[in-house]
UniProtKB/TrEMBL annotation:
<dbReference type="GO" id="GO:0005524">
    <property type="term" value="F:ATP binding"/>
</dbReference>
<protein>
    <submittedName>
        <fullName>Spermidine/putrescine ABC transporter ATP-binding protein</fullName>
    </submittedName>
</protein>
<keyword id="KW-0547">Nucleotide-binding</keyword>
<dbReference type="InterPro" id="IPR027417">
    <property type="entry name" value="P-loop_NTPase"/>
</dbReference>
<keyword id="KW-0067">ATP-binding</keyword>
<dbReference type="GO" id="GO:0016887">
    <property type="term" value="F:ATP hydrolysis activity"/>
</dbReference>
<feature type="domain" description="ABC transporter">
    <location>
        <begin position="4"/>
        <end position="235"/>
    </location>
</feature>
<dbReference type="Pfam" id="PF00005">
    <property type="entry name" value="ABC_tran"/>
</dbReference>
<keyword id="KW-0813">Transport</keyword>
<dbReference type="InterPro" id="IPR003593">
    <property type="entry name" value="AAA+_ATPase"/>
</dbReference>
<dbReference type="InterPro" id="IPR003439">
    <property type="entry name" value="ABC_transporter-like_ATP-bd"/>
</dbReference>
<dbReference type="InterPro" id="IPR017871">
    <property type="entry name" value="ABC_transporter-like_CS"/>
</dbReference>
<dbReference type="InterPro" id="IPR050166">
    <property type="entry name" value="ABC_transporter_ATP-bind"/>
</dbReference>
Amino acid sequence: MDFLSLQEIHHTYFTKTSATTALSDISLEIGEGEFVSFLGPSGCGKTTLLSIIAGLLEPTAGAITLEGKDVQEASKNIGYMLQQDYLFPWKTIEENILLGFKIDGSLNDSNRDYALTLLEKMGLKGVEKQYPKQLSGGMRQRVALVRTLATEPKLLMLDEPFSALDYQTKLKLEDLVSNTLKSFGKTAILVTHDIGEAIAMSDRIFLFSSSPGQIHKTFIMPDELREATPFNARNHEAYSSIFQTVWKELESLEPANKH
């Protein structure tokens, strides 16, 4: 049994005057511990699909199961990390990372210790009593990752989590997130516009076409890239030819440029 299974997902947005099909016939399987990316032109339904997988949106048709359970039942096992860190500015870093436990009423000494240990592992020891505005963008995203991991979700959704960061911080954070998820054996889905990021971080890349969103092609990354850190993967000799291949496929999906 696959860890995450999507069967013939369709989604249509209805208004009083129109119907827009955002996703059509999406079927895919993701194994436990796998890191996959959704890549594609703007408007191809990547974020809509992420919302459906997270149980935030009910698809018009189709079924999604996580470990054999309907995703609506399993939604508490899903963690989200977004482009914005969404830390509460009036709460300390410690209060922010314990929020998941507070919300579901499960906060105790054991999970508080676990969250603080995670913070230390992310190189953030000593910031517990500080507020988000006292930290850099990269540090805040690390706090957001701790908050996501603290409740031990089985599946992580990463919706362009590095796109607001400067390039150097982004590269460091890619490595940190990748190493952390591997060490915990986590399953993750990354939505990104960045081909390089998708290649460097993923086991597989699903390339979407748009209007409506469909899986156009699946790229399986070679073992030598999958086993490397994202930073080293970008410097691997196999990287540039894969980049060119994915780039050409993505170009073929873009509407012809008007001159």
